[in-house]
Amino acid sequence: MQQRQAPDAEEARQLIRNDFFERVRSDEEIDALVTKFAAVTATPYAEVLRRMLGMEEMDENQAKSLLRRVLAHRRRLSKMVGRSVHVRVAALDLLTMHPPRTAGIQRRDSRPIVVTPSLIKRALDEASADEVTGLPQRAHFMSLVRHELRQRKRRSAAVVFIDLDGFKRANDLHGHACGDEVLRMLARSARVTLRHGDVIARIGGDEFALLLLDVSEAEAIAAVTRLRERFESCTARFGTSFSAGVEMPIPGDTADSLLERADAKMYRDKRARAASVTG
């Protein structure tokens, strides 16, 4: 299997720019983040650690204790080196040098957490942004969907599969630079029309996916309609639009099955839109 090469300087800078915790500098900001997550999940401390380190299914009390130890360790490291230490660096240092059992955290399986190459590769894959749009890519999106499926009893979420219409024609007529601009326009339109906390990702060439939190199916469809209207307005000179399929989770769903159903519904929407134009 081909190994991932170490990121070059520009890729490393991009990873830092896309790191959610790069914008979190102080203990107070971490506390504010916990408060923010508490509005949408019953396990805000576990959610912080999941996003920071990829730690799944951690008990909330364990997560709270570990996060407090991470922040204390960060303060000690910062004092030692004479500058502020990134919270993720402090967390990895604590977990590598002092696994949870010796740090006073008891896990159900009692095994220490080890920062393995596969964990680092997964973190890099999920953190990597699409070069053209700056959006998250498929790996990160699917990780978020899997997490939301675990939260399904506490809140609802919708997955939307989007495929651009007229993109190939615009690319052929106006060139690849124009095509890239169309992709970026969808990303910008989403940032304007979607709510804070909703996610748009580029999962293929001209394919995108949305994760809309705390919505009914009708609300999700309305959000897609607003996004389409904004996108069509921004790209009117190119004649592009998109087809979309909205799906809500059902019992037994996986991230893959949910996205596949949204994909199938998107194709039905594409056929209906094409028929309305020719009919």
TrEMBL record:
Domain of life: Bacteria
EC number: 2.7.7.65
Molecular function terms from GO: diguanylate cyclase activity
UniProt cross-references to SUPFAM superfamilies, sorted A to Z: Nucleotide cyclase
Gene Ontology cellular component annotations, sorted alphabetically: plasma membrane
Stored SMART domains: GGDEF (SM00267)
Domain GGDEF: 155-279
InterPro entries: Diguanylate_Cyclase, GGDEF_dom, Nucleotide_cyclase, Rev_trsase/Diguanyl_cyclase
Any one of the GO BP annotations: negative regulation of bacterial-type flagellum-dependent cell motility
NCBIfam families from the UniProt entry: GGDEF
Protein name in the entry: diguanylate cyclase
Source organism of the structure: Labilithrix luteola
